């Protein structure tokens, strides 16, 4: 009975370790294939901040605009009396 229990616990432990290694490799590959860049633009994000960032990146000539994904963040500092927003964009390298 002890040997059966020990065998079962060993199998489960090995499966958990191997599964964790596969997940870590997948995350590492995914991080390596994504480029990230930030740009500042005047104005606030509002409800359509991501779309505003995509439009601004198109006009400013973002590198490799295919699969471009952007997040918009309002920045508390002010440029010449106007609010600014930060566009954080990612795409496949």
UniProtKB/TrEMBL annotation:
<dbReference type="InterPro" id="IPR010682">
    <property type="entry name" value="SCRL"/>
</dbReference>
<comment type="similarity">
    <text>Belongs to the DEFL family.</text>
</comment>
<feature type="signal peptide">
    <location>
        <begin position="1"/>
        <end position="26"/>
    </location>
</feature>
<keyword id="KW-0732">Signal</keyword>
<protein>
    <submittedName>
        <fullName>Uncharacterized protein</fullName>
    </submittedName>
</protein>
<keyword id="KW-1015">Disulfide bond</keyword>
<dbReference type="GO" id="GO:0005576">
    <property type="term" value="C:extracellular region"/>
</dbReference>
<dbReference type="Pfam" id="PF06876">
    <property type="entry name" value="SCRL"/>
</dbReference>
<dbReference type="GO" id="GO:0007165">
    <property type="term" value="P:signal transduction"/>
</dbReference>
<keyword id="KW-0964">Secreted</keyword>
């Amino acid at each position: 009975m002890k040997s059966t229990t020990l065998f079962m616990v060993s199998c489960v432990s090995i499966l958990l370790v191997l599964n964790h290694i596969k997940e870590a490799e997948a995350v590492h590959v995914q991080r390596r294939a994504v480029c990230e860049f930030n740009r500042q633009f005047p104005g606030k994000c509002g409800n359509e901040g991501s779309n505003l960032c995509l439009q601004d990146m198109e006009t400013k000539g973002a590198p490799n605009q295919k699969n471009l994904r952007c997040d918009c963040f309002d920045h508390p500092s002010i440029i010449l009396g106007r609010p600014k927003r930060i566009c954080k964009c990612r795409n496949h390298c």
